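Hey, can you fold this one?
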Amino acid sequence: MTTTDDTTQHPERHAAGLFDIRNIIGALLAIYGVVLLLTAAFGGNGPSAKNSSANLWMGIALLVFGVLFLLWARLRPIVVDEVALQHELADDQGPAGHGPAE
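Sure. Predicted structure:
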């Protein structure tokens, strides 16, 4: 059984994974959304009933955007090519390796 996985064709390439900023932003938005939803659900119905409605709608919005960011990072991962990165860094160092070529 053969697979056409990208890692078998290009072993020096890998996804950015957890260090992708979309994962961090998505997780934060989703966490804040859940906190606002919990606040709206268990915050009580005292004088802040108007705020409860705002918490509900903003919690839903933040949760939706957080999930969208996480899906975006999962479906379209950033692929890091280590060989190309090393070549680019070597070109930036110049011929003697002491800084950019002038």
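The first helix runs from residue 6 to 9. Let me know if you want another pass with a different chain boundary.
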